[in-house]
Design goal:
This protein is α/β, with parallel strands linked by helices. It is built from seven helices and ten strands. The chain has a domain at about 95-160. Bound molecules: adenosine-5'-diphosphate.
Length: about 230
Amino acid sequence: MPVIHLEKVTKRYTEEGRTLYAVRELSLTIEQGDFVFLIGSSGAGKSTLLKLMGGEISPDEGEVYLNEVNIGKSFGPWRTRITRSFGIVNQECQLIRKRTIGDNLLLTAAAAGMRRKGKAAARKALSIVGLAAVENCYPAELSLGECRRVELARAMVNSPPILLLDELTGNLDDDNIWDLMHLLNELNSRGTTIVMATHASQYVNIMRRRVVTLVDGRLAGDVRNGKYGRIV
Ligand code: ADP
């Protein structure tokens, strides 16, 4: 059964009286357990597509489904259930600077409805990304690579079946990107669905996963065992 299905989805913005299509008539199905690299030049619509998939924004036309439930038409407990299916890392760092890493994860766990188990879940997520030791540190004390891994831990704290990752590898050096790719591979092999927008072409080519290419908001390519820049 498909996990995420987009049916002729369009998202547009109006700027200075001009209509701009961020995503245009895009249909796509992401199956349970897929590992998808979302590629395309800056402004191609990758972030918008991730936000549409995770229900952070709604389409102007078309529908987005999670397990056949229309995300845009879900409210109350249905909506909560849907949002908890996604672990999301956005381009902007979402860690609260005045809280320790442990507290940051605990807040996310609480928002996901985890009460007594929150602390154990936060510790487990940190240990999965290899950063159990930073629980009592503040975000400013971490390197950029560590921060991105903590954000991944934060996204994983309630063990969501789907991770939506926007430029997780941006501005990282090769060692850090490689560590993250290994980690994502491992999570995916345990069943987590991963959709990741990235410019890390070298790694996309080595990993040979599904590659979805966007050009001007449209689907330009969707290739299994794909390579960066190949659309067929
Ligand atoms: P990418 O992630 O591939 O760089 P985005 O999804 O961020 O692309 O953006 C696609 C297009 O939509 C860009 O032209 C961008 O300027 C525009 N866009 C995205 N979000 C907004 C917004 N909130 N308001 C206005 N325009 C936006």
